[in-house]
Amino acid sequence: MNIHPDMTIGEMVAHHYRTAEVFNRHSIDFCCGGKKTLGKACLDHNIAWETMEQELQRALREPELSSGNMDQWEPDFLAEYIVQVHHKYLRENLPLLREYAAKIAGKHGERHPELKILNKQVELLQNDLLEHMDKEEEALFPYIRTLCAAQRRPGQTSVVLPVPVQESIELMEHEHDYAGSLLENLRHITGDFTAPANACTTWRVTYAKLKALDEDLRWHVHLENNILFPKTMLLEQMLGNQN
Predict the structure, then answer these.
(1) Spatial separation of the C-alpha atoms in residues 126 and 153, rounded to whole Å
(2) φ and ψ of 8, to 5 deg
(3) 91 near 149, Cβ under 8 Å?
(4) C-beta neighbour count of 196 within 10 angstroms
């Protein structure tokens, strides 16, 4: 594959998911920051283009898992995967994180005030993500399924969304940015989710679960911002041109 500086980070990861490891290694955001070009990312992080190109080429030579070709999935299938895997993960783990964060803040917050801040950030993150997922599952994702049905059965399916799809997607991306900013705060507060040597078990578990959620959400947002949303807008445009 010919890699060039004008390619976006999102395009790169969508093409081959193992390139995400390169961006993670350099602390480059490939989900919310997926629209940034490779050249701009190198400039922002003081990385020589030749170094970036070599690392990406090595990643491209690594075999993909069977689930790694998500850029080839149909939008409705990908949306359902996101619900069943990533939304389910968040709904199961966010309440546990809220419980653990409140517990360590209550027990250790006087001596470690950063834990009180962490507790509030986790509360904001939970509230934001639960509301965000409801919006996707109640409006945008059903619309995506309707678009795909209209493509498969032309003339037999009506396509209706309360707001223009571009407006809906821009709102979802804005909410992704907000969730990303909360996680960035949490990474800063926790020193990249590194518990102190004298931390209790609950404290260590909280940081470990935060780290796992951070990694899962990065991939989750990448799938939406860089694969699902562009596919949806392209499909809507194609169907509109056929009418």
Answers:
(1) 39
(2) -90, 160
(3) no
(4) 12
Q: Which of 55-64's residues contact partners 24+ apart within 8 Å by CB, and which partners?
A: 55/22, 55/25, 56/3, 56/12, 56/19, 56/22, 57/1, 57/3, 59/16, 59/18, 59/19, 59/21, 59/22, 60/1, 60/16, 60/18, 60/19, 62/18, 64/16, 64/17, 64/18
Token pair 């250790």 in the structure block, residue:
108
Is 4 buried (19+), middle (13-18) or exposed (0-12) by CB count in 10 A? exposed
**Torsion angle of C-alpha atoms 78, 80, 84, 85, degrees rounded to 10:** 10
DSSP output for 82-144: IIIIIIHHHHHHHHHHHHHHHHHHHHHTTT-THHHHHHHHHHHHHHHHHHHHHHIIIIIHHHH
DSSP states along 176-211: HHHHHHHHHHHHHHHTTT---TT--HHHHHHHHHHH
Q: What is the rounded end-to-end Cα distance, in angstroms, of the chain?
A: 36
pLDDT along the chain (243 residues), means of 10: 87 80 85 85 93 90 65 92 95 96 96 96 97 95 89 66 78 95 95 93 95 93 94 86 50
- Nearest-angstrom CA–CA distance, 39 and 77: 32
Whole-angstrom distance, CA of residue 104 vs CA of residue 206? 9
| Rounded Cα distance, 69 and 66, in Å | 7
Pick from 94, 90, 87, 93: nearest CA to 141: 87
**Coil, strand or helix: which one is 29?**
coil
What pLDDT, on a 0 to 100 scale, did the predictor assign at position 18?
Answer: 78
